[in-house]
Amino acid sequence: MSIEEICHVQLDESKAKDEYSDLSLRLLDLSDIDDFMVWATDEKVVRFCTWEPYTNKEDGLNFIRNTVLPHPWFRAICLGDRPIGAISVTANSGNDKCRGELGYVLASKYWGKGIATKAVKMVAKTIFADWPHLERLEALVDVENVGSQRVLQKAGFQREGVLRKYIIQKGRTRNVVIFSLLSTDPQI
Predict the structure, then answer these.
(1) The pLDDT of residue 3
(2) How far apart are CA 69 and CA 27, in angstroms?
(3) Sign (positive/negative) of CA torsion 178, 186, 17, 154?
(4) pLDDT: which is higher, 135 or 186
(5) What's the order of all strands across the beta sheet hosting 99-106?
(6) What is the DSSP string of the chain?
(7) What is this structure's pTM?
(8) Average confidence (pLDDT) over 168-179
(9) What pLDDT sits at residue 188?
(10) 107 vs 87: CA distance, rounded Å
(11) Comparing C-alpha atoms, which of 75, 184, 85 is closest to residue 136?
């Protein structure tokens, strides 16, 4: 590769980073239904999710109304205030209240651009302050979901191991990889 080609690749990479510099997290609202439906109806996006693709707006609105709005920590991943995905932390209770579970989804058009990694890092920088009782943030990822595993590793999560036959997902028992980030871990 010539120096000109290397410089061109580096320039393209910096343009891509600038293009996504306006990434933010905010509450997802009923008015976001059209953007929500973009990723919630995509077979590729929901492949490793526990839910099937949405087929109509009414079901999407009911999910936002009944699950998202009352959720204590559910955010839209936005580019220029337009939702392109979602990220959440679900709290545990009782003796497990020191742990929370991270989940995220991103429109397939934005895969491979560092957006999910940046969103996970944004959550990691704030969640331990938002929830001082939280000492451990966990994520469970299907063993075949290599992209999501890379996201977590790039965001500073530690791969702890494989939980065999851990969850039934879409009628099949699945193995998952467990990742964690502790409140005392260095932030990347």
Answers:
(1) 41
(2) 8
(3) negative
(4) 135
(5) 23-26, 74-79, 82-91, 99-106, 136-142, 172-182, 158-169
(6) --HHHHHHHHHHHHHHHHHTTTEEEE---GGGHHHHHHHHT-HHHHTTSSSPPP-SHHHHHHHIIIIITT-SSEEEEEETTEEEEEEEEEE--GGGTTEEEEEEEE-GGGTTSSHHHHHHHHHHHHHHHH-TT--EEEEEEETT-HHHHHHHHHTTPEEEEEEEEEEEETTEEEEEEEEEEETTSPP-
(7) 0.87
(8) 95
(9) 79
(10) 12
(11) 184
Q: Which two tokens stand for residue 154?
A: 């790039």
Side-chain half-sphere exposure of 147, counting CA atoms within 13 A: 15
Pick from 183, 143, 150, 145: which is nearest to 166 by CA? Answer: 143
For the stretch 124-141, pLDDT in tens is: 999 999 999 999 999 999
Report the alpha-carbon distance of residue 153 to residue 181 in Å, rounded: 10
Average pLDDT over residues 44-63: 94
Contact 64, 75 (CB under 8 A): no
What pLDDT does residue 148 have? 97
Give the separation between CA 96 and CA 92, rounded to whole angstroms.
5
